[in-house]
Amino acid sequence: MSVTVDLSSKTALVMGVANARSLGWAIAEQLLAAGCRVGFSYQGERLKPELEKLTAGRDGTWIQQADATSEDDLTALFARVRDEFGHLDYLVHSIGFAPRTAMEGRFLDTTPDDWNTALNVSAYTLVSAARHAEPLLREGGSIVSLTYHASQQVVPKYNVMGVAKAALEAATRYLASELGAAGVRVNTISAGPMRTIAARSIPGFGTMYEKAAQSAPLGRNATPEEVGGLALFLLSDLGSGVTGQTVYVDAGASIMSMKVE
Ligand code: NAD
């Protein structure tokens, strides 16, 4: 299915692309196809060659290293946005991380350090990125992040990441409430399981992936392209009446409590 959206006068920053499987890249592809100019931030110089490869030959793109937990990196990143674009229409936060130790054992045993890291990287960075973006965002601006249903129901081993995603969803509502007066919307996309680098670090992800597909009303998992399509809707004026929401793209898996054959 293709929907024609013209974003040729728009600009976007996508934070959190590691490779072609990243959900951030699936979103960027839709923005680029609609003519949007897109800047990318990536964490650590080891990801630079991959980003250079992905963006090669794509008009209107640029890349910059930024650890989202570093105020200095964020200051430099948004200065670059101002220099390249002058303003910002869309901000995509596609960042999540929890130390593996926090996802292997019991939730009860979560250490303060692992808690702080998971919530800082996976939830607080949405707040800090939005604050840096605020002076550059215009009426009609839109912010989107990525969450997961383990915020609402227990998913074994997801542990502190479930808490971090609950914080991200709550932060989305608070940000939407404060930025609404400027005509800026903030939403988060709750994606079903997708095979990405971040997913590989979740113990038992393969089983979770199969089970989600079996229980979903559509009998399959949603795809990264479908995440990109929802992001395009929420970022562009197609979603102009939607803000503060957690919107699911999971082939319906989250509505099921159990499937009786
Ligand atoms: P990914 O590994 O491709 O992307 C995660 C990105 O986060 C990477 O680019 C990584 O470099 C970046 N990152 C981590 N710490 C960072 C930091 N301190 N500063 C800057 N960047 C940092 O995996 P993905 O699955 O595309 O993840 C993107 C988002 O989607 C995450 O928020 C993830 O929780 C969410 N999500 C993923 C799934 C799934 O099944 N893959 C499902 C629902 C939600």
UniProtKB/TrEMBL annotation:
Source organism superkingdom: Bacteria
Keyword entries, A-Z: Fatty acid biosynthesis, Fatty acid metabolism, Lipid biosynthesis, Lipid metabolism, NAD, Oxidoreductase
Pfam families associated with the record: adh_short_C2
Enzyme Commission number(s) from the entry: 1.3.1.9
Pathway membership, UniProt: Lipid metabolism
EC supergroup of this enzyme: oxidoreductase
Classification via InterPro entries: Enoyl-ACP_Rdtase_NADH (IPR014358), NAD(P)-bd_dom_sf (IPR036291), SDR_fam (IPR002347)
Record's catalysed reaction(s): a 2,3-saturated acyl-[ACP] + NAD(+) = a (2E)-enoyl-[ACP] + NADH + H(+)
Leader sequence residues: none
Family: Belongs to the short-chain dehydrogenases/reductases (SDR) family. FabI subfamily.
Annotated PANTHER family: ENOYL-[ACYL-CARRIER-PROTEIN] REDUCTASE (PTHR43159), ENOYL-[ACYL-CARRIER-PROTEIN] REDUCTASE [NADH], CHLOROPLASTIC (PTHR43159:SF2)
Protein name as catalogued: Enoyl-[acyl-carrier-protein] reductase [NADH]
Source organism of this protein record: Deinococcus carri
Source lineage: Bacteria, Thermotogati, Deinococcota, Deinococci, Deinococcales
